[in-house]
Design goal:
Shape: elongated
Structural class: alpha/beta
Strand order of the largest sheet: 3-2-1-4-5-6-7
Pfam families: Glyco_transf_4 (PF13439), Glycos_transf_1 (PF00534)
Order of helices and strands: EHEEHEHEHHEHEHEHEHEHEHEEHHH
Protein name: N-acetyl-alpha-D-glucosaminyl L-malate synthase BshA
Organism: Arenibacter troitsensis
Bound molecules: ligand GMT
GO molecular function, one term: glycosyltransferase activity
Largest sheet: 7 strands, parallel
Number of strands: 13
Strand content: 15-25%
Oligomer: single chain
Number of domains: 2
InterPro entries: Glyco_trans_1 (IPR001296), Glyco_trans_4-like_N (IPR028098), Glycosyltransferase_grp1 (IPR050194), Thiol_BshA (IPR023881)
């Protein structure tokens, strides 16, 4: 199949999922064309099955906002025609499904039919998409998609609650490719980050409000009072500065390492003991799954799709949003005994295999077949 993938090329989960999916599809022999404004962060190796087409938005001083959707839909039309692309898969409804629909309609004028699969990722529904200023356009473009998928059952339910959706939403969970991680277990350099007796706790996100970064710091503060530990904070975003200040106020700045964005999270996760994800909402929690495959136990909130990934008392613990006391207590429960920690770590790695790419990829391929047949 010749497939065009539209996504955000940044460190966000939706971009990561889209990129990893495209790479896996190319490995299965499909021809994959990424169409976005920058080369996706995890797309390092271009092969003869992977193409990247950059969307340029010409700057014009008349415009207060440069029209990215217009440039994207034009680029889609040109690329689809030039390469004979058969299917369009857009990740994140805003504005990708909208631009995809416009491209579809323009192509129809020329007698070309291209089915569009839209994958909903979370914030495009629960945070941004439902805003009254976007809702009609998001609602419309979801309904105009030939196939709609969501990354968790919970996100499907939220979408049906928040929008007036006429078509079926198929749940295809996010996935993980174990083969990409296992080779790195040997080069864990734990000693770079902490001393022998210290446990390593990690948080990875885009440091937005929804991640409840102050909760991460507060949980760690409580843990480190009882167990020698270091906290590694990976990522960039608006809450980072406040987090650094909070660490200083609490007198734990020397125990918290801020690393910024990283392309090598597996190298950090492979020496981590515990992952903190106390988010306000999370449609799936890909970062937690990436931690799990690296044998890291999870302390998270019990919101959104997280309970579909982190299992209470098995791979970690889940608490109500904001209940930092309970999250810290549970973390201490896991960390204070090596045998218990080992059990949670093993369980996490085992449970992550339910999301193995080899199980999930055929689900996408089946969806593509279905979309192509609908033509
Ligand atoms: O987590 C973010 O803020 C980024 C966002 C994105 O679209 O990149 O992540 C969403 O999609 C990920 C991949 O499907 C999910 O794992 C995240 O849970 C989801 N984030 C939220 O729902 C807040």
């Amino acid at each position: 199949m010749k497939i065009a993938i539209v996504c955000y090329p940044t460190f966000g989960g939706s971009g990561v999922v889209a990129t990893e999916l495209g790479i896996a599809l190319a490995n299965r022999g499909h021809e994959v064309h990424f169409i976005t404004y920058r080369q996706p962060v995890r797309l390092e190796l271009l092969s003869n099955k992977i193409y990247f087409h950059e969307v340029h938005v010409p700057e014009y001083p008349l415009f207060h906002y440069q029209p990215y959707e217009l440039a994207l839909s034009s680029k889609l039309v040109d690329t689809i025609k030039l390469f004979g692309i058969e299917l369009l898969h857009v990740h994140y409804a805003i504005p990708h499904a909208y631009a995809g629909y416009m491209a579809k309609k323009m192509l129809e004028e020329e007698g070309i039919y291209i089915p569009m699969v839209t994958t909903l990722h979370g914030t495009d529904i629960t945070l941004v998409g439902k805003h009254p200023f976007y809702r009609p356009a998001v609602n419309f473009s979801i309904n105009q998609s030939d196939v709609v998928t969501s990354v968790s059952q919970n996100l499907k339910e939220s979408t049906l609650e928040l929008f007036d959706i006429k078509n079926e939403i198929e749940v295809i969970p996010n996935f993980i490719d174990k083969r990409k991680y296992s080779t790195n277990f040997t080069d864990c350099q734990r000693s770079l980050m902490a001393s022998e007796d210290e446990k390593i706790i990690t948080h990875i996100s885009n440091f937005r409000k929804v991640k409840r970064i102050p909760d991460v710091i507060q949980i760690f503060n409580k843990i480190q009072k009882q167990i020698p530990a270091k906290l590694i904070m990976v990522g960039e975003g608006p809450e980072k500065e406040g987090a650094e200040r909070l660490c200083e106020e609490l007198g734990i700045a020397n125990k918290v390492i801020f690393l910024g964005n990283s392309n090598e999270i597996d190298r950090i996760l492979c020496f981590s003991d515990l992952f903190l994800l106390p988010s306000q909402t999370e449609s799936f929690g890909l970062a937690a799954l990436e931690a799990m495959i690296n044998r890291v136990a999870i302390i998270s909130s019990n919101t959104g799709g997280i309970p579909e990934v982190n299992r209470q008392g098995v791979t970690g613990y889940l608490s109500d949003v904001g209940n930092v006391d309970e999250m810290a207590e549970n973390a201490i429960k896991i960390l204070s005994d090596d045998q218990t920690l080992e059990r949670f770590k093993n369980n996490a790695a085992k449970a992550a295999m339910d999301f193995d790419i080899m199980k999930v990829l055929p689900l996408y391929e089946a969806i593509y077949e279905k979309a192509l047949l609908a033509r």
